[in-house]
Write a structure and sequence with these properties.
Layout lengths: L1 E7 L20 E6 L5 E5 L12 H14 L7 E3 L2 H7 L15 E3 H9 L4 H12 L2 H14 L22 H14 L11 E4 L2 E4 L4 H4 L3 E9 L3 E10 L2 E10 L2 H18 E7 L4 E8 L5 E5 L4 E6 L7 E6 L3 E2 L7 E8 L5 E8 L8 H14 L3
Parallel strand pairs: 12-16
Antiparallel strand pairs: 1-15, 2-3, 2-10, 4-5, 6-7, 8-9, 9-10, 11-14, 12-13, 13-18, 15-17, 17-18
Helix pairs in contact: 1-6, 2-4, 3-4, 4-5
Amino acid sequence: MKYGKMFLLAALLSTVSLKSYAFDTAARNAILMDYDTGAYIYTKNHDVQMAPASMSKLMTIYILFDKLRDGSLSLDDKFTVSENAWRKGGAASGGSTMFLKIGEKVPVEDLLQGIIVQSGNDACIVAAENISGTEEDFAVLMNETAERIGLKHSSFANSTGLPHPDQKMSAEDLALLAHRIIKEFPEYYHIFSEKYFTHNNIKQGNRNPLLYSMKGADGLKTGHTEEAGFCLTASATRDGRRLIGVMAGMNSNKERSEEAERLMNYGFREFDNYQILTASQVIAEVPVWYGKAKSVQMVVPEDVIETIRRNEKDKYTMKVVYDEPLKAPIEKGAVIGYAQLSDPEGNIRKINLVAGESVEKMGVFGRFMANLKYLVLGDK
C-alpha cells in the first residue's frame, strides 16, 4: 500500500456526526442533517427508537406520493369514508381530525392536504383502508416500504401515529424519510408549506410552528402524544442550502417551537458546504508496471462537497492511497486508489480515485525487458 503526500484540505466526513461543540437541546431525541451532503451536523439519541406520534404520518404520505408517481392513484380519485375511520379518527376520538363524514367521498388531493396540513387521523385511516382494505394491512405495506427504502429503526402498527407499542421510529429514520419526500416528490412538496386548509367549511391551520416564525421554513410534520412529547420534523432553506431537523420529547408547544428554530439556526450559522474536490481534477500521477505508458493520472470522478464548520475549513488533511505497483492493463475510469480525508477529531472518509486514461499492457518482449531492467537497475 502506497501513501501519497499529505495535503492541507477543507474536508470532513459526511457519514458521521460533526462535532457538536457547546450546542445542546432540551429535546430527548434530535438530529440535524444537511440535505445536499447528508452530513449529520448534530445528533442526540438519533438512532434510538421512540414513539413518533403524528410524525409517522410521513410514511403514510410517502406511500400516497409513491402511488401517485407509479400511476396507481391520481389526485382526482375519490376515497370513501368508513364508519371505522370516522370513529377512530374523527372529532369524537379527541385527536387531530379532518372532520370527515361517514360515507363522504373525498378526492385524494384533499386527503393529502388533510393529512399534511390538518394532521387528520381520519384522513390517514381513509387512505389506508382504500389502498389496502384495512389499516392493519396498510401497516404491513408501511413496514415493507420502510425496509425497501432503508429505514433501520422503524416499525408501524397504524397509519396515524396514535399510541401503539409497535409504532416506533428513530429521529434518524424520520430525517431520511423527509429527505426522500423532498427529493423524490418536488411536485407535491409545496403542500407542506400551506398554512391553512378548509374542508367541510372548517378551516384549520398548519401545526408546524416554524412556518409562522422562521424564514425559509417549508415543512414537514409535527407530532404530540403523552409518550412522545412534543415533536417536529422540519426543513428550511437559506441561501440555497437546505437543512432537515427532527426533534422529539419536548415538554410544550412553546419549547418545541423555540428549540426547533434554535437548532436550525445553529446549523445555518455555524456550518456551510464547500466544494473541496472537482470532477476530473488530477490528484496524483502514479507509476504503472507492465504498462505501455509509465504512469497514469489519478482523478476525481465527481464533485466532492462537504459540510464543514465555518471556522475550521482549513484544519483538514488529505493523503492519496493506492496499491503499489499498479499493474497494466488499466481501464479509464477504473478505481485505482482513494483520497483519505481526515478531520481534526480523526474521522476519516475515503473518496475513490479513478484512472484518467486507459493504459494497455506491454507485449511479452516488453515485459521481459521491464523485468530485466528492474533486476539490473531496480527501476520499474
